[in-house]
Amino acid sequence: MALRRKGGRERTIDYWPGFVDALSTLLLSIMFLLTVFVLGQFILSREISGKDEVLDRLNNQINELTELLALEKSGKQDLEDSFANLQAQLALAEGERSKLQKLLDQGAGTAGTAEARAGTLSNELTQQKDISERALNQVELLNQQIAALRAQIAAVEEALQVSEAKDKTSQAKISDLGRRLNVALAQRVQELNRYRSDFFGRLREILSDRENIRIVGDRFVFQSEVLFPSGGAELNEAGKAEMGKLATALLELSREIPSEIDWVLRVDGHTDNVPLSGTGRYADNWELSSARATSVVKFLISQGVPANRLVAAGFGQYQAIAEGDSDEAKAQNRRIELKLTEK
Prior knowledge:
The chain crosses the membrane at residues 20-44. InterPro entries: Bact_OuterMem_StrucFunc, OmpA-like, OmpA-like_sf. This is Peptidoglycan -binding protein. The protein has two domains: 57-174; 194-342, CATH 3.30.1330.60. Helix 2 runs antiparallel to helix 3 (122-206) and helix 3 packs across helix 5. It has 343 residues and is an alpha+beta fold. It has seven helices and five strands; from the N terminus they run αααββααβαβαβ. The longest helix is centred in the first third of the chain and has 101 residues, at 16-116. The chain has helices at 2-10, 16-116, 122-206, 224-227, 237-254, 285-302, 327-333, and strands at residues 213-216, 219-223, 263-270, 310-314, 335-342.
């Protein structure tokens, strides 16, 4: 019996290590799927935010056109009210004319009676003639007023027809506005992208021999060490030379960009995450990054670039492109970025 018990224990299989390995593999798969899902959500939110900005601009323009249409309708209502008032005045004038015509007829009858009774009613006949003459004058005046009112009514009707035509035209324009805005926006973006590509292409040719200058997406990136001394915001001689080349390329390109494209060159200053010493000129990295961007903008202005085509912005250490605290990561984060965009 002891041997049988010993043999039974030796045949027992331990499943626990295999179960732990399977569970670990399942957890790693779930973590990988969650990472892919979060990354996809981040990219999708970036795309949606860009489209929301374009949609907001289109909604603002449609609201402006809606306000213009409301003003047109208000003007139409005023014209209709004026037309109703003129019709009322015409009715009153017609009534006055009828009364005067009756008075004229009565005056004519009285004149006939006065001729039969010439001896006894001569004074009354003279008075009636005066009354008749005044009545005729009033009738003539009323006829002129009626003609003027009819002319005004005709003008009002014509204005109403013009207003209705404008109303129909405005509705047609509004219905077609979305399509035209989309086409115009696509053309503007396409034109700006073409000029941006030309601009970066020329800068590539001019600055191709510099290893510490590179293109990242739609931005031209200069490492700060190329342009500024450590902790300073004044352009050194090498930096002025590089910015001079940039100004030349920008001036050449500005002559080719159509005037209806409201473009600007944005100059962004960035620093690493090392705090500045309290004894320096700048209190923190915010001030240093802003001062460096402003220094580049002012130099470009001195080279003839229009000031209204330049924008300076400082981001401190809060828009890093390299993670970590290594010297290489810090050097990449200390940079000046140039971006050609619309206002």
